[in-house]
Design goal:
This protein is mainly α. It is built from 9 helices and no strands.
Length: 206
């Protein structure tokens, strides 16, 4: 359980900082109650984590050898892709495309809601935007892969804590940090982390 918890915590914390969902939380927190945004964002990420772990557990009924090889392939594949993406990014800057996508998502959601929003509207907006942005993201797929071969409770608690940490950083100090986040460095770290998990999975299954 401890190994699964640590893997989930590290993987999510590193991968989510500077991600689209991170900047959605930053933008929402600039216009609405930070507490409400944090609750809505964290609830969405927790729901996505539970869903991903459930999918991972469903996959675990397949033959162990197939799950093991798929887990290794996913981690190594993601690791190589992240390292390649990082090598093509400019240094010392966040990904402008990701920020623009987050801004566009928030703007579109704001147009569909009344100008004067109550607490429920803010919570709903934060929840829906975050959930949709996280769907199909590499962290969701990585969570499914982790849950397929590791303790479900450990992965769930570690991943949710990692998401909560990133959400707290986004709503509390995201505006100050947004321009200082080096997406290149975070992507490099994430890539090495994925490769590390792939190697560990290969060694454990040897």
């Amino acid at each position: 359980m401890l190994t699964a918890f640590t893997a989930g915590l590290l993987l999510i914390t590193v991968s989510e900082l500077g991600d689209k969902t991170f900047f959605i939380a930053v933008i929402l927190a600039m216009h609405h109650s930070r507490r409400l945004v944090f609750v809505g964002v964290t609830a969405a990420l927790a729901a996505m984590t539970i869903l991903s772990v459930a999918l991972g557990q469903a996959v675990s009924v397949l033959p162990k050898v197939y799950i093991h090889h798929a887990e290794i392939a996913l981690f190594l594949g993601f690791g190589i892709k992240l390292l390649y993406d990082a090598s093509r990014m400019p240094a010392f800057s966040c990904d402008k495309e990701v920020v623009e996508e987050a801004e566009a998502a928030v703007k579109q959601a704001d147009m569909q809601l009344p100008k004067k929003k109550n607490a429920l509207a803010i919570l709903t907006e934060a929840f829906v935007l975050t959930f949709m942005a996280e769907w199909g993201d590499r962290t969701q797929i990585a969570t499914i892969a982790l849950a397929a071969g590791n303790n479900a409770i450990g992965v769930t608690t570690g991943a949710i804590l990692g998401h909560a940490i990133c959400a707290a950083v986004a709503v509390i100090g995201g505006r100050m940090l947004a321009g200082r986040i080096s997406e290149r460095k975070l992507t490099f770290i994430g890539g090495f982390l994925f490769l590390l998990f792939g190697v560990v999975a290969a060694i454990e299954g040897a």
